[in-house]
Design goal:
The radius of gyration is 29 Å and the shape is flat. Strands 1, 2, 3, 4, 5, 6 and 7 form a 7-stranded mixed β-sheet that branches. Strand 11 and strand 12 (about 255-260) form a beta hairpin. The longest helix is centred in the C-terminal third of the chain and has 42 residues, at about 455-495. The chain is built from 18 helices and 13 strands. By secondary structure, the protein is an alpha+beta fold. The mean pLDDT is about 95.
């Protein structure tokens, strides 16, 4: 099952007392399925920014517990710091990272806000994408007046909280109010320049940042500022939406940089920002030598960048995830100043809990030895899914070789698309390698349940039947995906690089073997189902797929000798 991942970045109004901060972060870490990534306290601001990630429900639970603990430990009546704030937990944004959209994330944020307001009695304002009204989208607007203005503000009609009390009680005086929202991921990226001039770096920054630069009469630097009819300064906007930027000098490296925050990567992807900075720098006689990403990023930032640069080179995008990321790193010079390790910078990779190694992450020999051991899993279902993955991989390989074949440049995109489709099928079959073993283990878990009372017996039987049904559906899914891969393999046998036609043929053999092997698992697992109607339906669908696989393999192998 593909996991949805969100990030939570709460800001707590305590940056000096490490014991208080530790008690808050302990609440986060005790929630299973949540990974604490960073704790950044600031003494001057008297504020700590915490970053943690996980699936939505555990993340919301961890956020709730942290907000609760902060409300118990931090007394806003005694709080002073340089950063604007209005509560013990000043702000708590949720950020979509993987396999979840902004609308879904906003609903989780609203659910969290409602719970904080009703169960903890803390006034909550929903902001950004979780805002109920346009006037509350802007965090600065919600926080106007800060804590000191809350007593007067909270009782007004305009600023009645979305959730929680609207009177400045003793409890609210202690906790203050909290802003809970959903926003896009912010990427901090610096562009390295072949100059030491901060002035040149600033000029490039002003060219690209959304705010742009002040309009002046005559000289753009020293000229008189231009004002509109209402007496307001006129600004010339930059070329990139949702981007803030400034130039500075880095003593450590002895170069000037353009420092940028991309506040909405859906409006301006990082690779588009990179190309625009390169273009504006070149127009001013400056070269971008590389870039550095500050903090963490979602994997999709690098995948989208790598795909973008591959397409610019008219190369196939149907390659492995690691190779796409390598292209992104090299294209944007992310390793220009120091090594760039995706495992230390990409949120999804940092979430790896270091537990049991998945079968697909084993070496070929380790996988074979594990299969040969006395353990009943992995078994035929996992092996069938893996054979199918190899069949899809061979079709993908032929597509990539065809995309790069000399003289076939006009068809690179056609074969690239085929390779991308092959990659998707291969990844799904690789997922099913481990899923088949997990489904078998669920049956074993069911047999291990208590079996003494009538209630326990009923629960045990229900669990075994549910697990058996799923263990029958998983190999059927392997059959369905493998059958889809026949289209790719046949296309490559007929239209792909003729020097690799035998590889397409082997791919067809692998796919048929995968379908027939998975069918055996469907048949044997279906025997254990008490619902015979469902069992017969699954068997019938499997038999149709077997007939289809036999036909497709025969047709493809008939093409191969003629090539």
């Amino acid at each position: 099952m593909i996991k949805q991942i969100i990030e939570c970045v709460p800001n707590f109004s305590e940056g000096r007392n490490m014991d208080v901060i530790k008690q808050i972060t302990d609440e986060i870490e005790k929630v299973q399925g949540v990974k604490l990534l960073n704790v950044d306290p600031g003494a001057a601001t008297n504020r700590t920014v915490v970053t943690f990630v996980g699936e939505p429900e555990p993340v919301c639970e961890a956020a709730f517990l942290a907000i609760k603990k902060a409300g118990e430990l931090i007394d806003m009546r005694q709080h002073h710091g340089e950063h604007p704030r209005m509560g013990a937990t000043d702000v708590c944004p949720l950020i979509p990272i993987a396999n979840i959209d902004m609308q879904q994330t906003a609903e989780y944020a609203r659910g969290l806000a409602q719970r904080v307001g009703s169960e903890l009695g803390i006034p909550v304002y929903c902001y950004e994408s979780a805002a109920y009204t346009p006037g509350r989208k802007n965090l600065a607007h919600c926080r106007a007046g800060e804590y000191e203005g809350l007593a007067k503000k909270i009782g007004t009609t305009e600023w009645k909280p979305d959730f929680g009390p609207n009177d400045f009680s003793e409890s609210v005086a202690r906790t203050g109010a909290t802003a809970v929202g959903a926003r896009d991921f912010l990427v901090a990226i610096n562009y390295n320049l072949n100059t030491t001039s901060v002035r040149r770096a600033n000029a490039i920054a002003f060219d690209v940042r959304e705010k742009g630069r002040k309009k002046r009469e005559g000289d753009p630097i020293t000229g008189k500022a231009v004002f509109d009819a209402n007496g307001r300064e006129v600004w010339i906007p930059g070329t990139l939406k949702a981007c803030k930027a400034i130039g500075w000098f880095i003593e450590e490296y002895g170069i000037a940089q353009v420092s940028m925050n991309v506040t909405d990567i859906s409006q301006t992807p990082v690779h588009i920002a990179f190309d625009e900075v390169v273009a504006k720098a070149a127009a001013r006689g400056v070269r971008v030598t590389g870039s550095e990403i500050v903090g963490l990023i979602p994997k999709k930032v690098l995948i989208e960048a790598g795909t973008y640069f591959l397409k610019k080179q008219q190369r196939s995008c149907g390659i492995s995830e690691s190779e796409i990321i390598k292209i992104a790193v090299k294209s944007m010079g992310l390793d220009d100043l120091k090594p760039f390790d995706p495992k230390e910078k990409v949120i999804e990779y940092l979430m790896d809990d270091g537990g049991t190694t998945p079968l697909i992450d084993m070496s070929c020999s380790a996988f074979a030895l594990e299969t040969a051991s006395e353990s009943p899993a992995p078994g035929g279902g996992s092996i069938s899914a893996y054979i199918g993955a190899l069949g899809a991989a061979l079709g993908t390989m032929v597509a990539n070789l065809s995309s790069h074949k000399p003289g076939w440049d006009s068809r690179w995109e056609y074969f690239s698309q085929a390779a991308e489709e092959g990659q998707a099928l291969m990844k799904e079959l690789l997922f099913l390698v481990d899923e088949d073993t997990r489904s078998f283990n669920k049956i074993m878990d069911g047999f291990g349940m208590p079996n003494d009372t009538e209630a326990e017996k009923a629960a045990r039987t229900a669990a075994i039947q549910e697990a058996t049904l799923y263990a029958t559906q998983v190999p059927l899914r392997s059959m369905q995906v493998a059958c889809k891969a026949f289209d790719l393999v046949e296309l490559m046998a007929k239209e792909g690089n003729p020097n690799s036609v035998s590889d397409a043929g082997v791919g067809a053999l692998c796919l048929r073997s995968a379908v027939l092997g998975a069918d055996l698992n469907v048949q044997i697992n279906a025997v254990g189902l008490k619902d015979k109607e469902s069992a017969n339906k699954l068997r019938k669908e499997a038999q149709i797929l077997v007939a289809h696989a036999n036909e497709r393999e025969t047709a493809i192998l008939a093409v191969v000798p003629g090539k």
